[in-house]
Write a structure and sequence with these properties.
Layout lengths: L9 H19 L5 H11 L3 H10 L1 H5 L4 H16 L3 H15 L7 H14 L5 H20 L13 H7 L4 H17 L5 H13 L3 H5 L4 H17 L13 H4 L8 H12 L2 H10 L3 H4 L4 H19 L2 E3 H8 L6 H10 L3 E6 L4 E7 L6 H28 L4 H10 L4
């Protein structure tokens, strides 16, 4: 069994690697006797690039070692030697090493992912030359995880993705390629993560300008992405706010599209309209939902819940009869729908059965326009006034001792 240690001599490290690979090769093929001589020749002639090149070419021999710790150690030392090279040369050899590690998906895939991850985290984030290597290594990890059906292993790290892309000074093209493969991974995990994938797709399409979205050379790809985004936004129960999607350049182009303008209208209804407009759409386009892979029953339920949220945004007290009229249900069904909306975290409310009203304390804001900003400003002003009154009570009674302060606080109305 080999043991790889960090030594101060580059020659010692390369000699150790050469001996390790030569021994493995002899075990696989006892007739190969020239390998060690070639390694030693390059080492003695101070030709480290030739040594590294031969080591990388022997990746199948290295991975044949049943001792995974030795395999990992060998690859880590190779990576370390590559990082010591001049940047342009290091980039070329690093790509070769990544290609060698990811060359097959059915032989020690978890070990290969572990090694790529180890290389990724040992790169210096403060080194400008490491930015490109870090990006390329992450993409190698992501692609190999997807190809080997091990996407779940990198999902926990994705919360750092946007920070990493900023640190690496990734280009727009690199960012888009990253978002595309990450979305693919999120949809291929067990179970799939459609909501997280949708959020990544929003980020992807948010990078497009109007000219890019309408460019004939790429418009078909972006159009397909926009259609997929719209369908998911309508389908997924967890998505309650859709108005921002209508501002995406690729989605805007659907409005006047010969085929997808109907989908755009449906998305607009789910973004800001109520159940009445949804029913009118269904009457005008019978069978359309099923034709694009959506269930009419599920869409109808979601639209009713969204309509309830809109009613809550318009008034803090909503009568039973208005809810029934808006949702196209009987008044006997109102309480069931209120409970469903609370369970879906779309509203927080209390039911007053005697007065037959629903008192809304919180609701999802489906849209955030100037009117919502005014409402928020009014609430903040009221909160500021209440705080000033409370501070005045404390200041006025502070000299009279704790008992007076407590009495003053009790005299304040509850807010």
């Amino acid at each position: 069994m080999a043991t790889f240690v960090d030594t101060s001599s580059e020659e010692e490290q390369l000699t150790q690697l050469a001996l390790y690979v030569t021994n493995l090769r002899h075990k696989r093929n006892p007739a190969s006797a020239e390998q060690e001589d070639q390694f030693q020749k390059f080492i003695q002639e101070n030709r480290p690039l030739e040594v590294l090149s031969r080591l990388i070419n022997e990746h199948e021999t290295i991975f044949s070692d049943p001792n995974e710790r030795d395999v990992e150690g060998c690859v880590n030392v190779i990576a370390y030697q590559i990082r010591k090279l001049e940047p342009a040369t290091a980039a070329k050899y690093a790509q070769r090493l990544r290609d060698a590690i990811t060359s097959v998906t059915n032989d020690k895939p978890l070990l290969r992912l572990k090694m790529l991850t180890s290389i990724f985290y040992t790169l210096d984030s403060n080194d400008e030359n490491s930015n490109a290597w870090k990006y390329d290594t992450f993409m190698a990890i992501a692609k190999y995880a997807a190809d080997s059906n091990n996407g779940e292993l990198i999902v926990p790290k994705l919360k750092e993705l946007d920070r990493w892309l900023a640190e690496w000074k990734a280009s727009q093209d690199q960012i888009r390629r990253t978002y595309k493969i990450v979305r693919q991974i999120l949809l291929s995990t067990t179970p799939p993560r459609p909501l997280a994938a949708h959020k990544i797709q929003v980020k992807y399409l948010s990078t497009l300008t109007k000219d890019e979205a309408s460019n004939p050379a790429t418009s078909s790809e972006y159009e397909a992405e926009a259609v997929s985004l719209a369908k998911d936004a309508i389908k997924l129960d967890e998505i309650h706010q859709l108005d921002h999607l209508l501002q995406l350049e690729s989605v805007k182009l659907l409005e006047k599209h010969a085929t997808h303008s109907v989908l755009y209208d449906l998305l607009r209804i789910f973004a800001s309209e109520k159940y009445e407009q949804y029913q009118q759409f269904i009457s005008k386009h019978p069978g359309y939902l099923e034709s694009i892979g959506l269930r009419e029953e599920d869409s109808r339920r979601k639209m009713r819940l969204l309509s309830l949220a809109s009613l809550g945004a318009e008034s803090e007290e909503v009568p039973y009869n208005l809810i029934a009229q808006t949702l196209h249900i009987s008044e006997d069904e109102v309480e069931t729908w209120i409970i469903s909306a609370i369970s879906a975290k779309m509203i927080d409310a209390k039911i007053n059965q005697l007065r037959r009203v629903v008192i809304i304390s919180y609701c999802v804001q489906r849209v955030f326009t100037q009117q919502q900003w005014k409402q928020l400003g009014t609430k903040l002003d009221a909160w500021k006034t209440n705080i000033k009154q409370l501070l005045a009570v404390v200041q006025n009674t502070k000299a009279q001792g704790p008992a007076a302060i407590e009495k003053g606080l009790r005299s304040q109305p509850a807010h």
